[in-house]
Amino acid sequence: MTISQLPSPFTFSQSSLQDYNDCPRRFKLRYIERLLWPAVETEPTQDYERHQQEGSLFHRMVQQNIIGIPAEKLSVMANSDNLSKWWDAYIQHKPDLNGYTLYPEYTLSAPLGEHRLVAKYDLIAVKPGERTIIYDWKTYRKRPRNEYLAARWQTRLYSALLERAGNHLNGDALILPEQIEMVYWFSNFPIEPASFNYNKEKSQRDWDLIAKTIAEINTEKEFAMSEEERPCKFCAYRSYCDRGIKAGEWDEFDGEIETEESFEIDFEQVGEIAF
Q: What CA–CA distance (Å, rounded) separates 64 from 44?
């Protein structure tokens, strides 16, 4: 075991890295101690849970449409006001990806030292040798600032991992950083997507940060609580950490609650990419 008692190998995802970035204590409680704490993240609970369920169903509808199920057949699944609105927005404003090979709900993984990196993409669109676009469908109620999204671990890890582990999607040719674009498409703001072009400098920056962060976690002793207390209102461990009892109001929540991701992956089938 390492000093932090981090399981080895450990599978790092954008959610676990974001948790550590936001609050090292939350990372420890969730991923090392595996503490199940029953507090709800937001109030009213039913509103948040309904939004989560609708978001999951929307993702599934888009995935099924991409693999060839006609939109009109899927529209019967849009059985709520939100889903109906999101689905209409998608049909009217979905990306034009003619000429691209599409890989919906696709997982990439690669080893990094004793551990592993993994990312599950909503959609990877590939025009071999020319362009590779990552799409992520978001059901945010508020349109996040691009600066907020650019700094998120999802933006960093998804582009970096695609560059290093996605060659088999590109005819086994290298995917150059400059050929990668990441697009967040917002169901509530369908004509305001956020797009981030990648490049060599960003790739080097991201891989340096990935290596630095994982090395830091490996040797971390304290796993201190975040100095910023506002996010604690939306954290399941707030009462455990004596940071309040009552959950934050759903109407005040303007981000995305990071939850532990579950990846059903046969790592024996994943090509080994040495770093």
A: 31
Cα Dmax for the chain: 55
CA atoms of 113 and 274, how far apart (whole Å): 8
Whole-angstrom distance, CA of residue 228 vs CA of residue 157: 24
Spell out the per-residue pLDDT of the chain, length 275, in tens.
344 588 889 999 999 999 999 999 999 999 999 988 755 555 556 777 888 899 999 999 999 999 999 999 999 999 999 999 999 999 999 999 999 999 999 999 999 999 999 999 999 999 999 999 999 999 999 999 999 999 999 999 999 999 999 999 999 999 999 999 999 999 999 999 999 999 999 999 999 999 999 999 999 989 999 988 877 887 888 888 888 776 656 455 555 555 555 545 444 444 444 43
**Domains observed in the chain:** 11-260 (3.90.320.10)
Q: Are 27 and 223 in contact (CB under 8 A)?
A: yes
This prediction's pTM: 0.87
Angle between helices 45-66 and 81-93 (to 10 degrees): 30
d(CA 178, CA 200): 7
